[in-house]
Design brief:
By secondary structure, this protein is α+β, with helices and mostly antiparallel strands. The chain has helices at residues 26-42, 48-70, 77-119, and strands spanning 138-139, 144-147, 152-156, 160-161, 176-186, 198-203, 208-209, 212-213, 231-240, 246-252, 260-265. The radius of gyration is 37 Å and the shape is elongated.
């Protein structure tokens, strides 16, 4: 005997009405989660780099989620608003963390600079206490700066006109070239390596940098070491405007030694 299958009819919605849609609560939930993580990351301050992006995302997701609630597309208004608020607080903590970190870094750098400067060897009468009001003393042509702690003496001669070679760098047409001789005497007990010696010059009332000229004959710098009781001399050339009346030459024998200035007339 055959059996006839019976099927229940599927209920139909009201004709002309759209089918109901599921609530879109995802952004509100995401805002709350990101806001909590961002806020917790911002409390230690040092994690500002994490709290900032998370807080920004939480704020955006929360505002969009709240907007969906107004449009009837979501139902978790409280969750979305809470996430946005937490995101805003995380952003504030991130900004505070950035400011505090910058202050700490600047203070640390200043302390390091002070310690390095304090550990630099000072010339006998050309350091910060050499001039009035703590100003650095400037030497004249042929004067010698003495570093007692290092057993070094630095002497700079008066500039003389220099004729540059055919191929040169650092020279501007219309300017004049001046040669300056720098002598380092080692009166210490150990050999001195002048490889890190820096020689710079400025000119004019505005103190503009005078370019160093290198033409294959001059401007190479010191080479090798200076034995105890010996001396080494190097010639450097600087480019200066034709109206320049003097050169302010600074010689720093080593990074652990304070630089000294020589005010040298060009004529």
């Amino acid at each position: 005997m055959s059996q006839q299958m019976q099927y229940q009819p599927v209920p139909e919605g009201t004709p002309g009405m759209p089918a109901p849609q599921a609530a879109r609560n995802g952004l509100g939930v995401a805002a709350l989660v990101l806001g909590i993580i961002g806020l917790l990351s911002g409390i230690p301050m040092v994690l500002f780099w994490l709290a900032g992006p998370l807080g920004l995302l939480a704020l955006i997701f929360g505002l969009v989620g709240a907007s969906r609630v107004k449009k009837g597309q979501a139902t978790n208004k409280g969750v979305a608003i809470t996430g946005a608020v937490l995101g805003g607080l995380a952003l504030i903590l991130a900004i505070v963390g950035v400011v505090l970190t910058a202050l700490v870094v600047n203070k640390t750098v200043d302390e390091i600079n002070k310690q390095v400067k304090g550990s630099q060897a000072q010339p006998k009468d050309g350091g910060e206490s050499g001039g009035k009001g703590g100003e650095t003393k400037s030497y004249g042509p042929g004067d010698t700066a003495v570093y007692p702690d290092k057993g070094l003496e630095v002497t700079v001669a008066k500039p003389s006109p220099y004729t540059i070679g055919e191929f040169a760098s650092g020279h501007t047409a219309g300017n004049k070239a001046y040669k300056v001789s720098v002598k380092i005497t080692n009166k210490g007990k150990a050999a001195f390596n002048p490889a890190l010696t820096q020689i710079k010059a400025r000119t004019g009332a505005e103190g503009r940098e005078a370019e160093q000229i290198i033409d294959g004959k001059i401007g190479v710098g010191f080479d090798g070491t200076i034995a105890p009781g010996a001396a080494a001399t190097v010639d450097v050339a600087f480019d200066a405007p034709a109206t320049a009346k003097d050169l302010d030459v600074e010689v720093t024998p080593d990074i652990l030694m304070q630089g000294v200035h020589w005010k040298l007339p060009t004529s």
